[in-house]
Amino acid sequence: MMNLSAGKNTVTFKSFGIELVGNLYLPEGFDENKKYKAIVGASPFPQVKEQVLGTYGPEMAKRGFVFLGFDYLGMGDSPSLPGEFKQSRYMFRLIENTWDAVSYLGTLPFVEEIMGLGVCQGGSIMASAAVTDHRIKKLATVSGMMAADAFQWTDKTVVNQMIAGANHSKQKIYETGAPDYVAPFGLTDDQSREEYIELAGTPMAGESYDYYGKDGIKGPKAVENFTNMHIGDQAMESLISISEHYADKIAQPTLVVYGKDAPTAICSTGFIDKLTNEHEVLAVSGFGHVDFYHHPDAVKVSTDAVAEFFNK
After folding, report:
1. Is Hydrolase included in the keywords of this UniProt record (predicted)?
2. Which of 28, 55, 88, 280 is the most exposed place for a label (fewest CB within 10 A)?
3. Which structural domain, as residue segments, surrounds residue 274?
4. Could you tell me which residues are beta bridge partners of residue 20?
């Protein structure tokens, strides 16, 4: 076994026959002869492991947990499959990558129990993975895009335009054998804040730019292996929200944390309404969707709540 120590350790594990790259965060005073609760993390779209998972990993390790944050197939430091291209993040593969991350944690002799924590799209990924992976003993979602149909599909005209663009991109990639990169939310790596807010025209534009924009807290300058540009067929899978339609099948105890004033609150409340398992809810005033990615006060609220829930 590799040499592991308290803090951040670079690790790899196999998924789809290739080595995915992760950061394994271990608590202070880590002793490989002791037993720890471990958490596998799932990140928001379109993130790499140095963003939200790089914030939550150290926080959960500080609270005594082993935490695995990793780059999905084709993202960040993880390679794409032969003949495929980087910056391709597909829902069904994300679920399988998560199952393999759980398998990897299960090989570590100091791990006694595995939990799942997902933020934004990561909530949907983790909940979907957990439906048939009961090795995941408890779930927590933060700002989760859980019951996303009402959020994503409200304007069918816009959605069908996105689908048409994605279908065109898929065909183009197949025929040319070359990647077709787009900015899924209209945000490129070069725009100014003013340009993006005017273009996006959504309530979340400012907070999104401050995180992902050119000079953002976790934008392309701050995070070397991150870009806002992605393979153009993305919408063909990101518009399918599996966890919403399997919510009543989730057996594991679940914690749902969200900002009650955030535009995405409906994605958590709609999911909560469909849960039939033992679950707890923490709806917080005063924080937006993206605040739970990085704002110290919001992150403290969510990580304290997750630690308490996972320790019960």
Report:
1. yes
2. 28
3. 7-153+239-311
4. 13
Taking CA atoms, 13 is separated from 3, 22, 85, 87, 198, in Å, by: 15, 8, 20, 19, 42
pLDDT of 195 higher than 60: yes
**162 part of a folded domain:** no
Write the CATH number for 51: 3.40.50.1820
Using a pLDDT cut of 90, give the percent of the chain over it: 93
From start to end of the chain, where are the E strands?
7-15, 18-26, 36-42, 66-70, 111-119, 136-142, 181-182, 230-231, 254-259, 279-284
> What is the β-pairing status of strands 66-70 and 18-26?
antiparallel
Contact 301, 255 (CB under 8 A): no
pLDDT digits (tens, 9 = 90+) for 258-296: 999 999 999 999 999 999 999 999 999 999 999 999 999
Specify the long-range contacts of residues 205-212, CB closer than 8 Å, at least 24 apart: 207/288, 207/289, 207/290, 207/291, 208/290, 210/290, 211/290, 211/293, 211/294, 212/187
| Neighbouring C-alpha atoms within 13 Å toward the C-beta of 96 | 11
* Cα 12 from Cα 24, distance rounded (Å): 9
Scan for tokens 């990615």, then name that residue.
293
Identify the residue whose tokens are 């005033």. 285
Q: What are residue 188's phi and psi, to 5 degrees?
A: -95, 180
Tell me the pLDDT of the chain averaged across its residues: 96
Q: d(Cα 216, Cα 214) in Å, to the nearest integer?
A: 6
**CA nearest to 125, candidates 205, 187, 69:** 69
φ/ψ (deg, to 5) at 204:
-95, 0
**% of the chain exceeding 70 in pLDDT:** 100
Could you give the number of structural domains in the chain? Answer: 1
Query: No. of H helices and E strands in the chain?
Result: 12, 10
For residue 289, tell me if it sits in a domain.
yes
pLDDT value, residue 124: 97
Residue indicated by tokens 């304290």: 304
